[in-house]
Write a structure and sequence with these properties.
The chain is α+β, with helices and mostly antiparallel strands. It is about 45% helix and about 10% strand. The longest helix has about 45 residues.
Length: about 500
């Protein structure tokens, strides 16, 4: 209604101007028409970015593949540079790995066959001797737990990592017939892209068949950034021998991108700001005096003044003055850094305290709320990224190898994965809460053990073993619910 009234008033004003200044009236009429068209096209949502305030929005309809294609590698390289030189990036990566992987997402073998089958022990021995030793890594650096940390840390910086299965002969001395090689995504030959001669198509070196299934990876034989120089040869590797670890954020995404992409500029600028403040303080520490006089050379004046020390008395001439520099001060530095660090930590899915190590304003309630915010992120990365996309396929490779080497069918056993224990904030409160939840039937004992990072079957087996040992040795503990049952019955005494 208001808009219609303004339009009528403007039209009436133009009609009044037209007899005296027709050119001005015509210009106003044209401007009004253009304004009306723009208003009709602007839509009803400011966030659509059609106004001047939204001119910085990058509006495009590219799919997940094209949106990343131009910047993925550069973001990865910048991320690695910042990992080398930016302390915040170093800390964030370390904290992400600590929270999600820690000392490792522990595998445990669940036997599905008959109890007492000797093949169970054979499977456990082969798994322990190969996967829990450096035999597992083609480069001889990690066991299966250490490789998890490498893979997750690389995924955070680069957005992705490749794990390649390399087959080995038992004559090489390994318990199983394969090893795993960790490869940076640089090994993908991006030039192999588009339709291929075999009827399939490729995206950045990843080959798909006509129904969209990954069938192969085209990898360089050496890292293209190595010292050998030139372009290395390319090998087509079957997709069943590659595990591609990345965290997809869009439908149709086939590769990952650095998790630091939204904050990489902010991290860089913040580090430069901090360096500048350090330089200001360095300058502030350079306390100096300026002696003004009409006679004597600089060397003579310096010799006359000597060295300023605490409690020293300086004598100068009547025609000389001595002024001292006013060093700069640092104001607002800490609040600015704290607020900016909070933004970065929130974007990376961790708390400000975890990123900075500043727990000065934390109590049990705030610490618990912080954990409530980041624990869902941690569980998501553990279950859907690490276990779902990495650990489970590694378990399949291991099962195939054990079946080949020991002739133990894969349907007789399976691998379960238990994430590391999450440290409790206040054991006296949290353990009591778990006890209450179990007694009320809201949680099972096994669920509590799993949430604490333990393997329920191993814990129960140890409890049985301990109780049997205590019963045999006649040991009684107040913490044992079965203490009364284990207490030897008192002998009845009679009076003679």
């Amino acid at each position: 209604m208001a808009r219609s009234r303004r339009l009528k008033l403007a039209t009436r004003l133009n009609n009044m101007i037209a007899p005296f200044a027709p050119s001005l009236a015509l210009g106003r009429e044209a401007a009004m028409m253009r304004r009306e068209v723009l208003l009709q096209q602007a839509g009803h949502y400011q966030g659509a970015g059609r106004s001047a305030r939204g001119k910085d929005f990058r509006v495009n309809r590219t799919d997940a593949v094209e949106a990343m294609r131009g910047d993925r590698d550069r973001l990865s390289w910048i991320g690695r540079d910042m990992l080398r030189n930016n302390p915040r990036v170093k800390r964030i990566r370390r904290q992400l790995v600590n929270n999600v992987v820690g000392s490792g997402i522990r595998p445990s073998i669940k036997w599905l066959g008959e109890e007492g089958d000797p093949r169970k022990q054979r499977v456990e021995q082969l798994f322990k001797r190969h996967c829990m030793k450096l035999n597992f890594d083609a480069d001889g650096q990690f066991n299966i737990l250490g490789m998890q940390g490498l893979a997750f840390g690389s995924t955070a910086i680069d957005g992705e990592i490749l794990l390649r299965r390399r087959f080995r002969s038992l004559r090489d001395g390994y318990p199983l017939n394969f090893q795993v090689q960790a490869l940076e995504a640089d090994y993908l030959n991006r030039q192999i892209d588009g339709e291929l001669s075999n009827g399939n198509y490729a995206i950045d070196g990843i080959e798909f068949n006509l129904i969209g299934k990954r069938v192969a990876y085209h990898l360089f034989t050496d890292h293209p950034g190595g010292r050998k120089g030139g372009t290395p040869a390319t090998r087509r590797v079957d997709a069943k021998n590659i595990i591609h670890v990345y965290d997809p954020e869009r439908a149709g995404q086939v590769r990952g991108i650095s998790w630091f992409a939204p904050v990489i500029t902010l991290l860089h600028e913040l580090q430069k700001y901090q360096d500048g403040q350090v330089k200001r303080q360095e300058i502030a520490a350079l306390f100096a005096g300026i002696l003004k006089g009409n006679s004597g050379s600089a060397e003579e004046l310096e010799a006359d003044i000597g060295v300023l020390e605490a409690g020293s008395i300086l004598q100068i001439g009547d025609d000389e003055t001595l002024d001292f520099t006013d060093p700069p001060t640092v104001e607002g530095y800490e609040p600015f850094m704290r607020v900016t660090d909070r933004v970065i930590a929130a974007a990376m899915g961790i708390t400000y305290e975890s990123m900075t190590g500043d727990y000065s304003n934390v109590n049990f309630s705030s610490g618990r709320m912080g954990r409530n915010d980041i624990d869902p992120n941690t569980r998501d990365w553990q279950e859907n990224l690490m276990i779902g996309r990495m650990c489970s396929p590694l378990g399949e490779w291991t099962a195939e190898a054990i079946e080949d080497v020991a002739d133990v069918p894969r349907d007789l056993w399976e691998l379960n994965w238990t994430p590391p224990v999450r440290p409790v904030i206040d054991p006296s409160k949290e353990y009591k809460a778990n006890e209450t939840a179990m007694r009320s039937g809201q949680k099972s004992r096994r669920q509590v053990i799993r949430e604490g990072g333990g393997d329920p079957e191993k814990v129960e087996a140890e409890i049985i073993e301990e109780r049997q040992k205590a019963k045999t040795e006649g040991l009684v503990f107040s913490s044992d619910d079965g203490a009364k049952a284990q207490t030897p019955a008192k002998k009845e005494t009679t009076n003679d």
